[in-house]
# Entry
Amino acid sequence: MKRIKISLLLLTAFFCSFSAKAQTADDIIAKNLDAMGGKDKISQIKSLYTEGTVQVMGNDNPTSTTILNGKGIRSESEFSGQKFIQVFTDKGGWMINPMMGGNVAQALPNDAYKAGKGQIYVGGPFYDYATKGSKVELLGKDGDAYKMKVTTSDSVESTYYIDPATYYIAKLVSKGNMNGQEIEMTINFSDYKKTDFGFVVPHTIQTDMGNFQLSATITKVVVNKDVDPKIFDMPKS
# Structure
């Protein structure tokens, strides 16, 4: 009798293990998109606007982000009375960084543009990824999280960690550039909330770039707000 019980336990463990391994990247992506509101809902989003605060060195500062789906993303933050702006579009990118060049808009280096231009899509890295020319690989598990590698058409690689309980993206690890130096950047996403539209947005975003950390809290989300495409145009000096 004991042998039968042990055999049944081993058999159950085997099938559970086989079932977990049988999940494909596309299975996990489908569950992630469903958790975020569903492909149909995501396809209806033309723009996404958020407001909040970003904490740097113990100080809260206002921040906002405007995305016109597939066209551009503009992020603005204010630190010590100075405004920082970063823009990516489907054609290029620019920034205004008072710490690097005053208030004059500067074109983003090509590597920085390639690394960040995926942010112009509201649906994130997994929505219609093949159409965008990206490739996704399931690398297995890291702890409980599914580890997903995304390689864009520009050969930019990022690793996403999917929470198996919610299928939300819990963490992103990628290479970045800071003051001309390549760094590893880790971004943690939490406090996911559903908007009135039905789309789910993380309201806490913590970024670690080694010697520099910041934490953003989203306080307002507007879906399909009217957006003037001219806000993405680089100012003429």
